[in-house]
Amino acid sequence: MNKLKVALLGTGFIANIHLESYARFVPTVEIVAIYGRHGENARRMAEQHHIPAWYEDIEKLLNEQEVDMVDICLPNHLHHDACMKAARHNKHIVIEKPLAMALEEADEMIAECKKRNLKLMYAEELCFAPKYERVRALVEKGAVGQVYMLKQAEKHSGPHSPWFYKKETAGGGVMMDMGCHALAWFRWMTKNSPVKSVYAHMKTVLHDTDCDDNTVTIVEFENGVTGVAEDSWARHGGMDDRIEVYGTQGVSYADLFQGNSALTYSTQGYDYAAEKAGTTLGWTFTMYEEAFNQGYPQELAHFADCVLHDKQPLVTAEDGRAVLEMIYAAYESARTGQKVKLPFSAKVKYPIELWLKD
Description:
By secondary structure, the protein is of the alpha/beta class. It is 35% helix and 25% strand. It folds into two domains: 4-124, Rossmann fold, CATH 3.40.50.720; 127-295 and 322-341, Dihydrodipicolinate Reductase, domain 2 (2-Layer Sandwich), CATH 3.30.360.10. It has helices at 13-25, 39-48, 58-64, 79-88, 103-115, 130-140, 167-170, 174-189, 290-294, 296-308, 317-336, 352-355, and strands at 4-9, 29-35, 53-55, 69-72, 92-96, 120-123, 147-155, 195-203, 214-221, 226-232, 240-247, 250-255, 261-266, 282-287, 340-341. The strands form three sheets. Strands 12-11-7-10-9-8-15 form a seven-stranded mixed β-sheet. The chain has a six-stranded parallel β-sheet with strand order 3-2-1-4-5-6, with helices on both faces. The longest helix has 20 residues, at 317-336. The mean pLDDT is 93.
């Protein structure tokens, strides 16, 4: 079997998840090189995951390695540069959320890849998470009647790395980090119905940051569906990720983490319970197959298949751009206290500048 040769850019938390997913669930892929901004991190991860080559220079990697696809798992402010470099070396690209820091960057990335007939794929794992996909299948079959409201919540006590809390490197707070998931999932469930308006309320309640760490966002779609997103870096006790679908003939709820866990009691604690869980003492819900339940292996296997067999990806850069536009509108709404109609754009370096304007 001819394997897809992939270069992974990044050495952080999400890069580890991608590496685990490829190794355990995507046999069509071979990771041939890894890049890290700090060479020691790249070397360590290469040794740990048996990757033959490591680099601290993206151009050097792309010049020396024969790769079919580049997987970008870097901080937000590096997405545009890494994508453009990979595209100019004629590599297909999968990129973690958010697509870019600004709409102008997103447009450049999309245009460059289209010009070169390259696939630019947006890694939104909620569109592949098995439990959420089961709910979508039920909805498609009419199980809940006509959908009129969608809700998605993702909450925990904050990200792993300091760069998430800086507007210059993240572009925004929890809205950029996790609100993007809800907005993408709303579009997925509504078959990309155009957005009429976005209304958002944002606060910074827990962390020492100029970014938002608790947000509520309401999206009105032209097909009549209302989406409600709740996102927080201020919730203690581990990851909470759930969806609710309301229809004229029924409802459907799914919790990404509960129901796929083992209820555990420990007086001593143990190695790992679930993402963002601060302790393993006492009663805990011990996760198993965490990456699989969240949809990472499924999306990466799909993207690899798209490159190997020249298929159209289910989630594209255009989807990522649409989500970014909604994020812009959310920050503007949080500043003005008003609904913001789409299309919307603003000449700012990164979306959170809209919220911090006055």
